Amino acid sequence: MPAAAVLPASAGGGGSPVVNRPALVTSGPGAYWKEGTLAPMSGGTATVTVDPSSSLQKWIGFGGTFNEAGWDALSVLSQADRDRAIRLLFSATEGANFAWGRLPLGASDYAMDRYTLDDTPENAADPNMDHFSIERDKLRLIPFIKAAQLVKGDIKFWASPWTPPAWMKNPAKFDGTDAPPSGGSGTFTAKMKSDSATLAAYALYFAKYIEEYAKQGIAIDRVSPQNEPGYATRYPSCNWDDGALGTFVGTHLGPTLAAHNLATKVWFGTLSNDTTYPTDIMSLTADALKYTDGVTLQWNTIGRIPSILSAHSSFQIMQSEHKCGNYPFTVAGTPAFNPEKPPNDQAYAVESWGYLKQWIVANSNGYSAWNMVLDVNGKNLDAQRPWPQNALLVVPQRKAADRYAGVLRVPSPLLLRRSGRRARGDHRGRRRGIQEPRREFGHRALQLGRGGDDHRGARRRKDGSSSNASTRLGDDLLEGLIE
Fold first, then answer.
1. Rounded to whole angstroms, how far apart are CA atoms 236 and 110?
2. What value does the CA radius of gyration of the chain take, rounded to a whole number of Å?
3. Collapsing DSSP states into helix, strand and coil, what is residue 424?
4. Which residues contact 285 (CB under 8 A, 6 or more apart)?
5. Is 38 exposed, middle or buried (0-12, 13-18, 19+ CB in 10 A)?
6. Would you say 218 and 158 are in contact if contact means Cβ atoms under 8 Å apart?
7. What region does 417 belong to: left with phi over 0, alpha with psi -120 to 50, or beta?
8. Are 271 and 277 in contact, with CB atoms under 8 Å apart?
9. Which of 52, 183, 393, 465 can bridge 373 by disulfide, Cβ–Cβ 3.0-4.6 Å?
10. Torsion of CA 18, 22, 24, 30, to 10 degrees
């Protein structure tokens, strides 16, 4: 198709209500982001084949992750630009229409600093959650969430901790380790305590979180008990004893949520370490299964979906964290690491299209981005190995009198299509403070970014596959680049 071709939208029929849907705008390789007037096509046909005899998985939607660093970046924008950024992510008519939001329960690696919701003096035990508080979240996370709710009133939320409160771990550290990125041993590896009193307190921690967020008008639909339990990292993280995660769900977390009359279900995970996966998944006891209706998988565990569905056919599979690109380790078929800034380029857009395709073909039910918004540096709490990470929206910032000034930039795009929605597009234009891409295939053209959740270098087993072949089908769908 010629660059900047426009296909008119249809207006409903057969008694169905008329839906105003923008036209489809297409571009070809080498013809992205051309200035000029879009030329409507007078003809042309498209073939769509529907096989009613083949029923595939139920799709529950795309989503993204709310992190403190995202709202911190958005806070430097004008109110108009900040509102527009939120619409780009959550609006059904102007943006990606994200259906799910992933929330960190305490600090993730993209918090402004390390914290949990029950930090105590001298890391003293607090089994009754007397020190529990979400006041910290009211500064950044909750305003971010509420801004999304104003645009997408029916958005659903699921939450996972990167670390329990430090007093629940041995040793009492926020991070999982201080082992250097170049390899070698650190001075500690923090692990969740396994005694019943600590696990009961941790279950209460979840219940208090769900209850306090409900008071803010934020319903937590699902929780996962631990982000990446198979990895100890130089940012908030936590290892668990073999088999302990499932025992925690069945013996403590599930019964505690039920005792508090909470409808929140468990998505078991988030599981990304394929080496520890068998031990983790086998810990799902019969008691744990009473409260679990799905799993959250990311990175290396995509190949485990068939065995999960074979054992638990009704489980939902949520891909919980899109790969971030710009890897400081070797990943076949991807460009060299850029230590200065996240590239947000076409190569990553092509790579990302491949990941979307792979997970949907593999029977996932949903797909979550990592950071939705970051500043131009894109770095997390791991100071030993800075890793500039891609994000959906980027806010260039400059320091001035202890404040930042910035404009919103939408990086190189990734096309996300919401099921059942017609393609659409609009004229390309630059508004003050925002560089804005055309919209294509039912979603704002955005680049999915995976935050710095993997800082384990060669210790982490990547899937090793090149996305070039699988993404070739998406090449003609890739919208243009800003840089």
1. 10
2. 22
3. coil
4. 246, 247, 250
5. middle
6. no
7. beta
8. yes
9. 393
10. 180
Are 390 and 449 a contacting pair, CB within 8 Å? yes
- Per-residue pLDDT of 81-103, as tens digits, reads 999 999 999 999 889 999 999 99
List the one residue out of 45, 28, 112, 99 whose CA is nearest residue 379.
Answer: 112
> What is the greatest pairwise CA distance in the chain?
72
446 Cβ contact list (under 8 Å, min separation 6): 88, 89, 96, 392, 393, 410, 411, 413, 414, 416, 437
Residue the block writes with tokens 């042309």:
44
- Please, which pLDDT band fits residue 441 given cuts at 50, 70 and 90? very low
pLDDT of residue 33: 62
Token duo for residue 34: 């051309």
Task: Report how far residue 410's alpha carbon sits from residue 438's, in angstroms, rounded to the nearest whole number.
Answer: 11
For range 135-147, the mean pLDDT: 98
337/322 Cα distance (integer angstroms): 18
Backbone angles phi, psi at 249, to 5 degrees: -65, -45
- Phi, psi values for residue 385, rounded to 5°: -135, 85
Q: pLDDT higher for 376 or 418?
A: 376
Which whole-number Å values give the CA distances from 456 to 148, 181, 289, in the listed order? 32, 7, 31
- If you ran DSSP here, which 8-state letter would residue 299 be given? G
Cis, bond preceding 236 (omega within 30 deg of 0): no
- Record the tokens describing residue 329, joined without a space: 């380790």
What whole-number distance in Å separates Cα of residue 80 and Cα of residue 433? 9
CA distance 163 to 152: 29
d(CA 49, CA 417): 17
What's the pLDDT tens digit per position in 170-213? 999 999 999 999 888 899 999 999 999 999 999 999 999 999 99
CA separation for the pair 466, 471 (Å, rounded): 9
Q: Residue 424: pLDDT above 50?
A: no
CATH architecture entry for 60-477: Alpha-Beta Barrel (3.20)
| Side chain identity at residue 398, one-letter code | R
Q: Positive or negative CA dihedral for 250, 256, 259, 264?
A: negative
C-alpha 284/C-alpha 307 separation (Å) is 14
